[in-house]
Design goal:
The chain is mainly α and 271 residues long. The protein has 14 helices and no strands. Helix 4 runs antiparallel to helix 8 and helix 4 packs parallel to helix 10.
């Protein structure tokens, strides 16, 4: 197994708990845009305490990362609101396909045949898990989700190559995304009276800690492999839903699991 893959799998497992925690939060009256705001506030406070005032320097990289992270979180949340979490997950993992293209331009990560094949397998596997009809609106929102997620991955890789530490990148996306997140949240969902316990988990564990593992894993591999391996997230989500929320598993979902797991082996195998 390549160095960095265990870190990426750990990140994808933590992200796989987001759907479970979010669903529980919604049962207590939480709303999606407010959840993004509180998650950003918690992550900003935590990362500021770790990085200090250095993260407040308004560099070009910080501002771009803040804009990208805000765009990703808000677009993805809106997509979930419109087309639901299952189909949103399908489109989110078009990201490896975008990463293959963007990484060639931005970070010059090596593109190999196995990485391209694995990227296509990811999309196929996730689609099998969440098999559904697709409308034009679904497609537009889904592509926007996958593209903004890919931009987050590729630009964070670029920041790594510029010499920024992983914690500095996490702080950048949290602190500099917060002002934009606040504006969007108060315009679209001024009610932020949510069950804070759940969003503290999302801010500290699912954002700061998960991204520590993700960026460390990506530093040891590359942006393409990172996007492919972390596509295990929906696999973990469905399995945890089965174990905790008592949801059922289908044969198509199991087939999707197999394709996604195989894609990780294809992408990370040694040439």
């Amino acid at each position: 197994m390549k160095k960095g893959v265990p870190d990426l799998l750990t990140a994808s497992f933590i992200w796989g708990t987001i759907g479970i925690v979010t669903e529980i939060g919604y049962d207590y009256g939480a709303n999606s845009f407010a959840s993004v705001l509180i998650r950003s506030v918690v992550a900003s406070v935590f990362s500021l305490s770790a990085v200090g005032r250095k993260s407040l320097v308004p560099s070009r990289e910080n501002l771009i990362m803040g804009a990208i992270s805000t765009a990703f979180y808000e677009v993805y949340v809106f997509t979930i609101e419109v087309i639901g979490a299952p189909l949103s997950a399908v489109f989110l993992y078009t990201a490896p396909l975008f990463v293959v293209v963007l990484s060639k331009v931005v970070t010059q990560d090596a593109i190999t045949f196995s990485k391209v094949v694995a990227s296509v397998m990811v999309f196929l596997g996730v689609y099998l898990i969440y098999l559904s009809d697709v409308t034009t609106l679904d497609l537009a929102l889904g592509v926007a989700s996958g593209l903004t997620y890919a931009l987050l991955i590729v630009f964070s890789r670029f920041m790594q190559m510029k010499g920024m530490s992983d914690m500095e990148i996490i702080s950048s996306q949290s602190v500099w995304g917060l002002p934009m997140t606040m504006v969007i949240s108060f315009l679209l969902s001024p009610d932020v009276s949510v069950s804070s316990t759940y969003w503290i988990y999302l801010g500290v564990v699912a954002t700061v800690i998960a991204y520590i593992f993700f960026y460390r894993g990506m530093r040891r591999t590359d942006s393409i492999i990172a996007s492919i391996v972390t596509s295990m997230e929906p696999v973990f989500t469905v399995v945890l839903s089965w174990l905790i929320l008592k949801e059922t598993l289908t044969l198509l979902q199991l087939a999707g699991f197999a394709v996604i797991i195989l894609s990780s082996f294809v992408a990370t195998r040694r040439n």
